[in-house]
Design brief:
Layout (H helix, E strand, L loop, with lengths): L1 E4 L2 E4 L8 H20 L8 H4 L5 H23 L2 H11 L15 H11 L7 E4 L5 E6 L5 E6 L4 E7 L3 E7 L4 H13 L1
Antiparallel strand pairs: 1-2, 3-4, 4-5, 5-6, 6-7
Helix pairs in contact: 1-3, 4-5
Length: 190
């Protein structure tokens, strides 16, 4: 199946490759680190009242903090945007002529730039490669509003189409480009 949007073309796989072992190991690592924090403050205390959660309000409060931290840490795995990461990994594997029309492969520098950007965004974008050498991030709301970023090594091109503001096209350049992009995503959904 091919996805087409402006000049972007992507052959979408029917099943995304998710490294379940890696996700499981990250969750295990997070939980083990958090529970180590729980055990250490109480290691020197003796007796059932000091070690049993039901009898020790301080330990209960610490346990509640640990579960809260675990919840936050594990939910941050969602912020890692597994589909976006998987798509970027697949784009990195594309070779020259990946679209059977002469498109070039994507540089490691561009892939890493996109990885860095996606982890900072407030919402996960739909990501696809373009034949012109950029990687496209797309957002679309139910009301038809559309936000698109074409990310190149040296710039970010923006296309915004909203019911209230019409169509706009402009470039983001320089060191503040990523910060402006992040704010645009927040404003788009705000």
């Amino acid at each position: 199946m091919y996805y087409k949007s402006n000049n972007a073309v992507l052959c979408q796989p029917t099943v995304w490759d998710i490294d379940e072992y890696k996700v499981r190991s990250v969750v295990t690592y997070v939980m083990n680190g958090l529970f180590e924090r729980l055990e250490n403050p109480f290691a020197t205390k003796q007796g059932i009242k000091n070690s049993a959660v039901g009898y020790n309000s301080e330990k209960y409060q610490q346990l509640e903090k640990i579960y809260s931290m675990a919840y936050t840490s594990i939910n941050s795995l969602e912020k890692n945007y597994i589909e976006a990461s998987t798509t970027l990994s697949q784009i990195a594997k594309l070779e020259d002529n990946w679209n059977n029309n002469g498109a070039k492969s994507f540089s490691t520098k561009l892939i890493e730039k996109c990885r860095g950007i996606v982890m900072q965004l407030a919402a996960e974008p739909f990501i696809c490669p373009t034949a012109c050498g950029s990687i496209q991030f797309e957002y679309e709301k139910e009301n038809g509003d559309y936000l698109e970023f074409e990310i190149y090594e040296d710039r970010i091109e923006v296309f915004l189409d909203t019911a209230s503001g019409g169509e706009q096209e402009f470039d983001l350049c320089g060191i503040s480009a990523t910060d402006k992009m992040k704010q645009m995503v927040v404003d788009f959904y705000g």
